[in-house]
Amino acid sequence: MPDARLPLSGAQLSELLLSINGVNAQQEDFVRGQKICNFYVGAAWASSSIVGGHDGKLRFFDIVPPAPAFRDAYQQTYWQDDPIQSAILRAAPRRFWARDQLLSVDLCETNPYLNEVCAPAEGGDALIARIPLPADFHFLWAFSRRVDQPRFSRLEIDFLDMLLPHLEQALLRHSEIERLRVFADLAHEQMLQSGRGLILLDEEGVALHLNRVATTLIADGSPLTIVDGKVRLQDARLAPRFDELVHRCGSAALGNSIMAAGSVAVPRSGAAPFVIGVMPFGRQQAQAGWTGLGRVVVTLFDPGRSHIDTRATLREMYRLSDAEAEICWRLANGESLEEMASATDTTRETLRSQLKRVFVKTGTKRQSELVRSVLLSPAVWTRLP
Question: Which of 171, 186, 310, 350 is 20 to 30 A from 40 in CA distance terms?
Answer without folding.
Answer: 171
